[in-house]
Amino acid sequence: MKYSLSILFFILLSLANQFSGSENDSKDAAIQVFDLKVEGLTNPLGLSADQPKFSWKLKGNKRDVQQVAYRIIVSSSESNLAEDIGDFWDSKEVKSGQSTGIKYNGKALSNNEKVYWKVKVSTNQGESQWFEGGYWSKGISAYNDWKSTRWIGMDKAFEWDDLTTFSKLSARYFRKEFEAKKEIKRATVHLMGLGLFELYINGHKIGDQVLAPVPTDYHQNVKINVFDVTEEVKSGSNAIGVILGNGRFFTMRQNYKPYKIKNFGFPKMAMQLHVEFTDGSKEIIRTDESWKMTADGPIRTNNEYDGEIYDARKEMPDWNKVGFDPSTWLNAEYVQEPEGEFQAQVNENMKVMMELKPIKILHGENGKFILDMGQNMTGWLQIKVEGKEGQEVNLKFAESLQEDGSLFLTNLRDAKAQDTYILNGKGKEIWEPKFTYHGFWFVEVSGFPGQPKLADFTGKMVYDGIETVGQFETSDPTINAIYNNAWWSIAGNYKGMPVDCPQRNERQPWLGDRPTSSYGENFVFDNTRIYVKWLEDIRLSQKKDGSIPDVAPAFWRYYSDNMSWAGTIVNVTDMLYRQTGDAQVIEENYDAIKLWLDYMQSKYMDESYILTKDSYGDWCVPPPSIEEATGQNADVKRPSQLISTAYYYYYMQLMTDFASVIGREEDIAGFQELGEKVKKAFQETYYNEAGYFGENQMTDNLLALHFGLVEDDQKQKVFESLVHSIEVTHNGHLSTGVVGVQWLMRTLTDNGRADLAFKLATNRTYPSWGYMLENGATTIWELWHGNVAKPSMNSQNHVMLLGDLIVWYYENLAGIQSDRNNPGFKNVIMKPSFVQGLDYVKASHDGPYGKISSHWQRKGQKINWEITIPANSSANVYLPISEAKTLEIDNRKGMNQNDESISKVEGKIMLTLKSGTYKLGFREEL
């Protein structure tokens, strides 16, 4: 096995000493530098890239702040840094406006070597002071550096375990004591703990992560987590403790459909603790045969589907501290290392990101009661309890209740979704699980001693430790509530990879759920790293012939060769380039995408250039009426060659763009030629002279219009067919499944019917997002008819039906859109639809250059619009007026040519603005 290192693209990590960005009145500090980041890992330790990248944001107290030069210094010590000694790298002054993705070009770091950096920038408004970015260190950079570190574990079950289909495997506990005989300067742990780990040094849990590491296909790659434990390791005696849970490594359903579900074996770990002493000497503590282990601890079983059983009577006080007697423990055994390559983890671990208290206790029969959390959430429940030794408290989780008030469990399929805590009887006991999570709104509690109080329970909301970077609000309560529901669904389904749902026996990273949803999500969350990691998962799951699975990592072996599912690799690559401006995402995925497209062409394209293979069609189309939808199954496949052919043409256009961006010009003519042949075949096969495509389904016409498959003289007719389908055939409602909904709102808006898109966005009757609200949803459903559907496929927490709704919120209602010609919000396209029915829209997105905000309000016929453009960027601002004479800027009529320029685009005013905050006012032209 060869150790793999990727040059990681745009993986931002927050470092020490970030500047808050507050104003400073001194002359030298008029330009502020903040949010300094090094790209390569989610913490500053264990960087895997030999050429990491730097980014920062600027803030000035004037308009039109544009960077013109920068200087970066990288030093081996804080003292050298303070004296401007760049003994690792001094870029000298570089004349450039680039402030994101700047590659390190200095001396190579050795393993575990730590360096410090700072930056000074010059702008057209003045020069900044030096601003420190903190530090980073190089990770363990070669497989041979791990060779003397052995993987340890125990490749067997114990007598209390159960390896049937509904497996029960207890957690494994490992410990080792060691002596640090000198004064310690620095200590760093590098850990691969599979499936999940918790690390302790001298009794202290290290880090605030949970359910770590992120899941991967362990046959392909294994993630390394790195921690600074300098504060925890002491001179003298020390103890290391590690608990291993099962995670995705020890599969949740053992020996069940092995042709479909991968299994990786029993939990195992490899670890190095690097200790550097003040005299310059070093020592490495490794996993080897001297470690002790036991599985006879309090965590009796754990997995994602079924939950965790914890027997507090089996607790081992101080097991992870010096002096504990492990004489009853076993010697850890050497075990086979995983097949996958060792890699630094590039995306965030999960964390407890929020705590919720239940809002009421619903009492039932036989001592049972149900907690109402007031919100469909993802995570677990912490309990506080006092009772007798051996008493069992059982927690069952569900998303909703049946009419009789009991839990609705059928939609969980065979997931037990239950935690059990067995008391030790030693006073007040506080417990929460370590190696499971649930999707739930309600919790049935049985066996709870005494009178329960709301204060005895706390819900822990768990998702990847990423920031919410978007805010969105309008005058319409339906839109606001849908946005809130979307936030909860998106957050709850970030689990080290984007999963479909958090509650039933699935929780899989389906590609078909995210091609456009990922785009909308990026406005709300700083999700760049999770999607870079997911693209790697997809590439690693690709077969040598080019086939890409429906699920990646391919925990389920589904390779259906479906264009609109596997093509998510193209859509997410495009999204990340558009939103971040870093072309490396294209470079990393280009060959894999090209191989897949070649495979699909050679295997499934007929002689007329129709792509004949599709698997799912427009998955989850709403039944015609709620009456017909009642009890109906939704997992009906309706393969569509129209869909697969339309997507193939669309991907030819994107590949042409990709080739141009990364200098693969030799491929462009081939993409264009094949694209034209596919377009011609699509036209000849699917266009009806009556003015529609295919069967005149909403999705058929949407794809043709949005992908550019409609000739100019056909567009009006086809669009009229689409509008008629919405307004007349479906009585003002959508009829799209997961494919069509990705292009619905933008296609309507781009063709002049933002008003119709607004109607769809605010409907509260079936089928609509508002219908979910009307029926009590606090997340997004899997099905338009989720309140009445057959329960076998009826998740109440999904994202796939969001389609392009969140994109539409930000780009078309708020007017915050990245310019394809200047991606990453280097230039912002601000072209909102000031739709009738909205009195205001207020939104912001914190992008690569800083926060972009847009707030417009309607007062009578006048619109007041305040916008903020971050430093070192610009904006094209489109106004729905034909004359500038009535335009007000900063409460003044007329134009200030020093600050902005004016032009006309298709008869309407466009302002080209530099950074700063502007107040615009104008009258709508009726």
TrEMBL record:
Signal peptide limits: 1-20
Keyword Signal tagged: yes
Domain spans labelled Alpha-L-rhamnosidase concanavalin-like: 365-463
Domain Bacterial alpha-L-rhamnosidase N-terminal intervals: 182-353
Domain of life assignment: Bacteria
Record domain Alpha-L-rhamnosidase C-terminal: where: 815-887
E.C. numbers: 3.2.1.40
Pfam families associated with the record: Bac_rhamnosid, Bac_rhamnosid6H, Bac_rhamnosid_C, Bac_rhamnosid_N, Ig_Rha78A_N
Entry annotated with the keyword Protein biosynthesis: no
Species annotation: Belliella marina
Top EC group: hydrolase
InterPro entries linked: 6-hairpin_glycosidase_sf (IPR008928), 6hp_glycosidase-like_sf (IPR012341), Alpha_rhamnosid (IPR016007), Bac_rhamnosid6H (IPR035396), Bac_rhamnosid_C (IPR035398), Bac_rhamnosid_N (IPR013737), Ig-like_fold (IPR013783), Rhamnosid_concanavalin (IPR008902)
Alphabetical keyword list: Hydrolase, Signal
Single GO MF annotation: hydrolase activity
Swiss-Prot/TrEMBL catalytic activity: Hydrolysis of terminal non-reducing alpha-L-rhamnose residues in alpha-L-rhamnosides
Residue ranges occupied by any Alpha-L-rhamnosidase six-hairpin glycosidase domain in the UniProt entry: 468-813
The protein, known as: alpha-L-rhamnosidase
